[in-house]
Recover the amino acids of this structure.
């Protein structure tokens, strides 16, 4: 399962959606209604997290204890599982960027009509769900590839495609790429220099958030990894449930929260950066 | 479409043959369009290798016996009733519920968040959507068991103090309704991510123009707001449908295979739980899923094209 | 057919009954954070008048319009229409038609349905709606495009539909928020005339916001020049141009040159001549003075011992604008282009004042 769009600039509107100022009574009713929705949603999303956190801070007898968290570093297999996941994530990210960035930039520059085709192509990974995809991949992949965990990376690139594409597409759409490229070329920069020094820096936010979401995907992808018989972090967590569910839950929550914080950090840093630019540009 | 001036300096000059007359122009143009399309090739090749070939393999194997002969038996097995057809039916039902309800809730939530004035809230929710949309599987299942499981769930015990037990009133986490409830945990964030750009496209000028002409808030939404975002919302729901249909790990973790769902049945094949003579039925199931999902993707693509014209 | 001719063919002059509502803005104040967008703006608008709010960006003209429309609430002050206070009336019920800068047409409706939106709201029967919408579209010259959707129309066409939509509800006041700035020059010029003719025919009180002085001067009955939330001067275009009451107006409207002057018995000494001060003794501020001269207030003659030197020339068509350096200032002078050969760069010239009086203001320190 993958997120489809960038979270960068997600709820960032230059003007609020409802600019009209409703009269007193209606304003109160609107605020009350919105508060109700937000409270219900908060309850639905936060309660299970609370339950899991509570569980991960209990020892085997069910009493509150920090021991599961403290025991995390010393668990057998966790270290190697975590680093395997990290390696897979890194390879996936690098491959995805190498593949998608030049392609999307090129399409924006020279083949605008192709954008619609790309939109459809990058939706395809949903059409073939992971469970089915791994069926086909395992059947076709040569033995030398199957014996390497990086086969998973290659497939993860496909899974990540929908949201990486959308992230880059949105990021590029916000720039006037054609003008930037023409300006850069007219000043004497070659294609590589233009891409590297003009376009990519302006895509920093889109690239970063796409990377973090790829990370989230790899850290959460269980189905394919387990069927391919590699012990990545999610697989380790499930396996370790049998031994000590408190610890494995603690690890799962830790990875979730860490990814969340990382992404929030990136989103915040970028937004303050780009808002400064936006303010400067507005006359 | 205007050709960028810089396309010219990236290409060799047109062959002299193109200048000689009409008949000679065609190959020059073809070569040129191939050359323009060339940089996209690595991407296309990768997608073909990583997605296309496995898909074709599945389609092929769906029509073969274990020995490799062509057969319609697999397809017949899944379409002629029984557990496989029931599996499709249940999966489709689940996907429908898990796309319409989160679709509506996700839209409302996205709107509520975007009209809020608390910057921190917006940021936290934005990143939470990205992370939670990827969340699922055993961890998610466990979180819900720990919350409203029949035994020691946190909320269950709170409710017990007031003397209320939802399990006594027909609630069951391990049945279809429970699975749908759990699915909302990633479907709603996904919907928020996908639908927010469409909400973005609602220009304040429309709202103000409507108000200026005398419309109430309700009138604006009824005749302008909702009609404009509806194609995007429905397109997004098609997407959610696809996800809900293909989700495997969460359902497996919750139900342990007790409900007939197509992804779970496919998983059974992968684990080797096969009846002799039906080894490739799993591939037929995969084919079935692909066909159904292609339909939902087509719906998505069609609606997106329509809405992008309005929301430019 | 011009719009006036088209308007004449329509039997019932639309809006004739509702025409000419007098509008008063009374000491409006609106602050955004630390910025005072409106700083006590007061303005009286006569029934059926076409008044332009003109000023640089940030002067508060759009805010004033939005307060008038009801989209912003003033911190203090009132808005009066036909004498009654509408400050607490929500935008929906103010019965004003507004044309926005761009892209305000509802994308899910065709042109006709857009125009009929206000009528549908007021529960007019379908047949009536269709015929009114049709009349209005004919009025703006877009009958053949009635069934087209906004994304199928050009910018100019969209704004004409927006205008028809605003007029359909027969509003008491018509508000236009820089409706032409997003259009290209040729379309802008055409639409300018069409809007004005339409407004004259229907006699609706109209408030038009723009930062383009040419637009304001050519379209409006009166122009209100705004600066930092206040009205600097409200006058007819000729008066505004010929008799600017403040330095800001003199420099914002039309072209003017600054030159340091000294007081004398008649008023001030400008370019070696004595001249009266516009507005009399009362208009002379204390301290050092500058005079503001329009290019047409000064004449230039070639003189070998002249004190001025031609520094720059711009060909403007019938006239050529010279920039003459004299006594440390640069003064813009217009000469007829047929005579301009005499005034090559570097030519020494003599400048003389040809206006009857001059506008003086506090001397601006040289930076």
């Amino acid at each position: 399962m993958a997120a489809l769009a960038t979270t960068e600039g997600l709820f960032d509107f230059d003007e609020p959606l409802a600019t009209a100022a409703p009269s007193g009574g209606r304003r109160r009713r609107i605020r009350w209604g919105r508060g109700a929705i937000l409270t219900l949603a908060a309850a639905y999303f936060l309660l299970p997290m609370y339950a899991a956190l509570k569980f991960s801070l209990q020892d085997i007898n069910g009493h509150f204890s920090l021991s599961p968290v403290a025991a995390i570093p010393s668990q057998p297999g966790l270290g190697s599982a975590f680093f395997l996941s990290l390696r897979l994530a890194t390879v996936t990210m690098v491959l995805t960027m190498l593949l998608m960035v030049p392609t999307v930039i090129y399409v924006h520059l020279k083949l605008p009509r192709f954008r619609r085709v790309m939109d459809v192509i990058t939706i395809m990974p949903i059409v073939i769900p992971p469970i089915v995809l791994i069926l086909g991949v395992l059947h076709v992949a040569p033995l030398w590839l199957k014996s390497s965990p990086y086969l998973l990376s290659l497939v993860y690139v496909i899974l990540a495609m929908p949201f990486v594409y959308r992230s880059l597409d949105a990021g590029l759409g916000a720039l006037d790429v054609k003008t930037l490229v023409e300006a850069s070329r007219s000043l004497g920069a070659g294609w590589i220099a233009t891409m590297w020094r003009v376009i990519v820096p302006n895509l920093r936010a889109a690239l970063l958030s796409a990377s973090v979401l790829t990370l989230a995907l790899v850290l959460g992808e269980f189905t394919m990894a387990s069927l391919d018989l590699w012990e990545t972090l999610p697989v380790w967590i499930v396996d370790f449930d049998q031994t000590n569910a408190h610890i494995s839950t603690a690890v799962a929550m830790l990875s979730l929260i860490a990814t969340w914080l990382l992404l929030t950090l990136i989103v915040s840093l970028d937004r303050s950066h780009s808002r400064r630019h936006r303010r400067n540009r507005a006359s | 479409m205007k050709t960028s001036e810089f396309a010219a300096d990236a290409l060799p000059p047109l062959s002299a043959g193109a200048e000689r007359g009409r008949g000679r122009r065609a190959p020059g143009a073809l070569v040129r369009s191939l050359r323009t399309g060339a940089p996209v090739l690595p991407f296309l090749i990768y997608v073909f290798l990583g997605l296309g070939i496995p898909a074709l393999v599945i389609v092929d194997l769906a029509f073969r016996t274990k020995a490799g002969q062509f057969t319609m038996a697999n397809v017949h097995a899944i379409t002629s009733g029984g557990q496989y057809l029931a599996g499709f039916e249940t999966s489709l039902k689940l996907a429908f519920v898990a796309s319409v309800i989160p679709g509506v809730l996700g839209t409302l939530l996205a709107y509520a968040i975007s009209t809020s004035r608390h910057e921190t809230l917006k940021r936290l929710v934005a990143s939470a959507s990205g992370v939670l949309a990827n969340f699922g599987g055993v961890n998610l299942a466990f979180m819900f068991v720990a919350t409203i499981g029949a035994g020691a769930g946190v909320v269950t015990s709170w409710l017990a103090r007031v003397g209320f037990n939802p399990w006594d009133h027909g609630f069951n986490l391990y049945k279809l309704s429970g699975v749908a409830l759990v699915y909302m945990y990633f479907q709603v964030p996904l919907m928020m991510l996908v639908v927010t750009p469409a909400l973005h496209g609602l220009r304040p000028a429309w709202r103000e123009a409507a108000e200026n002409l005398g419309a109430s808030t309700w009138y604006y939404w009824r005749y302008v707001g909702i009609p404009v975002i509806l194609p995007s919302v429905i397109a997004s729901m098609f997407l959610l449908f696809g996800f809900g249909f293909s989700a495997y790990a969460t359902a497996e973790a919750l139900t342990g295979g007790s409900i007939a769902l197509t992804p779970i049945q496919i998983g059974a094949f992968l684990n080797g739980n096969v009846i002799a003579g039906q080894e490739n039925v799993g591939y037929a199931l995969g084919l079935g899923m692909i066909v159904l999902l292609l339909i939902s993707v087509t719906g998505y693509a069609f609606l997106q094209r329509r809405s992008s014209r309005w929301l430019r | 057919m011009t719009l006036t001719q088209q308007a004449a063919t329509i039997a019932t002059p639309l809006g004739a009954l509702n025409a000419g509502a007098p509008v008063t803005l009374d000491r409006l104040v609106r602050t955004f954070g630390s910025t005072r967008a409106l700083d006590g703006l007061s303005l009286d608008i006569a029934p059926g008048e076409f008044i332009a709010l003109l000023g640089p960006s940030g002067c508060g003209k759009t805010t004033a319009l939005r307060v008038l429309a009801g989209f912003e609430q003033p911190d203090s002050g009132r808005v009066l229409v036909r004498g009654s206070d509408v400050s607490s009336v929500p935008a929906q019920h103010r019965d004003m038609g507004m044309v926005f800068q761009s892209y305000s047409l509802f994308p899910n409706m065709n042109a006709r349905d857009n125009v009929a939106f206000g009528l549908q709201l007021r529960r007019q029967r379908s047949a009536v709606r269709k015929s009114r919408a049709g009349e209005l579209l004919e009025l703006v010259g877009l009958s053949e495009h009635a069934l087209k959707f906004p994304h199928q129309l050009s910018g100019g066409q969209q704004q004409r539909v927006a205008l028809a939509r605003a007029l359909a509800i027969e509003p008491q006041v018509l508000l236009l928020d820089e409706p032409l700035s997003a259009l290209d020059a040729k379309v802008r010029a055409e639409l300018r005339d069409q809007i004005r003719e339409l407004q004259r025919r229907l006699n609706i009180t109209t408030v038009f916001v723009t930062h383009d002085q040419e637009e304001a001067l050519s379209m409006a009955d009166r122009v209100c020049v705004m600066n930092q939330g206040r009205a600097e001067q409200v006058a007819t275009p000729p008066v505004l141009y010929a008799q600017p009451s403040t330095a800001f107006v003199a420099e914002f409207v039309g072209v003017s040159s600054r030159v340091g002057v000294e007081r004398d018995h008649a008023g001030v000494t400008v370019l070696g001549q004595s001249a009266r001060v516009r507005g009399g003794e009362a208009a002379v501020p204390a301290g050092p003075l500058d005079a503001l001269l329009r290019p047409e207030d000064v004449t230039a003659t070639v003189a070998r011992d002249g004190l001025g030197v031609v520094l720059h020339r711009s060909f403007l068509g019938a006239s050529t604008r010279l920039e003459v350096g004299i006594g440390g200032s640069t003064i813009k002078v217009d000469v007829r282009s047929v005579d301009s050969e005499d005034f090559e760069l570097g030519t020494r010239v003599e400048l003389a004042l040809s206006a009857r009086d001059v506008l003086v203001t506090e001397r601006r320190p040289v930076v």
Summary: Chain B has two domains: 17-49, 63-310. The longest helix of chain B spans residues 83-114.
